[in-house]
DNA sequence: TTGTAAGCGTTATCAC
DNA sequence: GTGATAACGCTTACAA
């Protein structure tokens, strides 16, 4: 019962037909007698034939595979996106490779080479580096790809799907300022990624419109790795930093900050009002009512798949995709 | 600049050498002159050669790919495991396919066929069905695999890595009973999966030891899909179900239950004490101090990769892996 | 309606 | 040291 994989050749020998006939029969080609098709299909099932997509891919040049390159699937934001992407892709008979880069340059490069080497038909990538250099490798190799969540200003040629980060940053900050928080701490992501820079633009615009100054010491970059935020917030509390509003680059950071605030006996929103980004609460019901900027992960994921498939299926199309999906602020108790 | 993929043949033509020599030079084989190796490697870099793993795989029979089949990467529990698995696998130069089954039979079967068809070298799967039938397909096709998180009592031949679910269920329940909660609601996972059955065994043992009866109406199965739990807990609250302790099959369910309790104005732990399972808090700092059973996801993931690689590299080994990783109860404020 | 031959890009084997 | 040849399992084109 246990065994080697059954090949077309095995079926051919057993059936006394040529490999070719078997292949065509299994694909239900018209030019094979109906009766033969039936016999062969039954035999295939009986022998547990599964087929070697590899060999077919080598010939056809298509692997029906998409690589998804993100910094970290353990972050629910990416976990949710990867799930949605996989789901969309599966509908079109595509399988996905998932590669984490941990936001590191070298890993991103390796991920890209791995994907190309495995002959994926397309790539959906959330780039983590400032330079577009790594991504250019894809262009050079003629691999269809689309950026998700981040973009490169200097490369208008790269297709992308992002959310309106500037608006999100603006809405979150404005809400805090409107609620009387004159000093809003911004725990931002690394400056090298576009979404962090654009959210900061929004943060600045809100201050400008409110006629309030932006103090540099309230804008702090936190690393992507879990735990980093805790140290920083601890430090801020201990040196009694002056702020009452807190806007975080993403929900994970916001949670972590609120976690530390709670540990120190502060209450949210009474002592500190907190706003996150990603609105993970829409998919995971956490018993902490975090106000957050919603960026329609589902929509972004679906568009990314559509775009990359479009590029796979229309390699000569010169169409460009630069999609910015709307963001909205979802208010909950963390900023009551 | 944009272009077709460069092949060994292209390099060979350019260099005036045979395809074979190029191949061996790139792999740093001793039998190629050092100078030639250098020239060729430089040329490869210059021309942007990436190599077609597909073709190599067809020949070697190895794809350096592992499929990871889980119900849902958007659940942080799986997101974290997939991340850990990817990381371990990457260290050994393996890439992972991720396929979600949404806990559905048909999708699980499809996932398995897809994985086999893509010639993965091995599979790590968290099976979602009662019957081991689908998994047997793997045996039949001779694909090395290991179960993670769940097992089949009737198939002692399947290797697995699980956590001590019975003990986890026992510890959580005992803790609640010890704290005076005579009626402990158990929001369990579907009975068709082994971990749910074993956690229930633990729940029962704790009651037995405490000399308390187990009431059937306190054991409720909740679906895997987010949102399901909310309806159920709402219903329980509205018909004033009699319980003060709550043990959930996983943290996601526990959060969701606590979420609803909070919405109804109840406090945790003053009104209801809540214990989860998975201890996601160890990786994600949520500002809700949920007591939870820790199951060492990192250890499980790592072992699963080690085992599947071992099976890939020693196809004839008859060694059997049945690993049960210890569980511990981590106390936090949700059960103070 | 079915079979034959070539080829996809590599790697393994053996000869030069 | 390097090159020629076959092979991996399948598909496409064409012949029978």
From TrEMBL, chains A, B:
GO terms for molecular function: DNA binding. The lineage of its organism: Bacteria, Bacillati, Bacillota, Bacilli, Bacillales. It comes from Paenibacillus artemisiicola. It comes from the Bacteria. This is LacI family DNA-binding transcriptional regulator. The keyword Transmembrane does not apply. Residues 6-60 form the HTH lacI-type domain. InterPro entries: HTH_LacI, Lambda_DNA-bd_dom_sf, Peripla_BP/Lac1_sug-bd_dom, Peripla_BP_I. Keywords: DNA-binding, Transcription, Transcription regulation. Coiled coil: none annotated.
């Amino acid at each position: 019962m246990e065994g080697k994989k059954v090949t077309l050749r095995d079926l051919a020998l057993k059936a006394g037909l040529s490999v070719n006939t078997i292949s065509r029969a299994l694909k239900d080609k018209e030019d094979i007698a109906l009766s033969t098709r039936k016999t062969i299909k039954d035999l295939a099932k009986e022998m547990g034939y599964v087929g070697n997509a590899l060999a077919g891919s080598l010939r056809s040049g298509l692997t029906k595979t998409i690589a998804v390159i993100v910094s970290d699937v353990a972050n629910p934001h990416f976990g949710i996106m990867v799930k949605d992407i996989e789901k969309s892709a599966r509908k079109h008979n595509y399988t996905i490779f998932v590669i984490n880069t941990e936001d590191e340059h070298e890993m991103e490069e390796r991920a890209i080479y791995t994907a190309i080497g495995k002959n994926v038909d397309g790539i959906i990538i959330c780039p983590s580096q400032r330079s577009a250099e790594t991504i250019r490798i894809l262009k050079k190799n003629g691999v269809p790809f689309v950026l998700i969540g981040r973009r490169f200003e200097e490369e208008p040629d790269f297709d992308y799907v992002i959310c309106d980060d500037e608006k999100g940053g603006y809405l979150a900050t404005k809400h805090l300022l409107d609620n009387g928080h004159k000093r809003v701490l911004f725990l931002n992501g690394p400056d090298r990624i576009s979404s962090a820079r654009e959210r900061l633009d929004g943060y600045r615009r809100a201050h400008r419109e409110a006629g309030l100054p932006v103090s540099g010491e309230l804008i702090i970059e936190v690393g992507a790795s879990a735990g980093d935020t805790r140290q920083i917030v601890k430090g801020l509390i201990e040196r009694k930093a002056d702020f009452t509003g807190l806007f975080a680059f993403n929900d994970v950071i916001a949670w972590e900050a609120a976690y530390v605030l709670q540990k120190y006996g502060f209450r949210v929103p009474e002592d500190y009002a907190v706003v996150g980004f990603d609105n993970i609460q829409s998919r995971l019901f956490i018993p902490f009512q975090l106000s957050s900027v919603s960026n329609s992960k589902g929509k972004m994921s679906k568009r990314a798949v559509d775009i990359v498939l479009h590029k796979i299926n229309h390699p000569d199309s010169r169409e460009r995709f630069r999609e910015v999906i709307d963001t909205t602020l979802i208010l909950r108790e963390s900023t009551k």
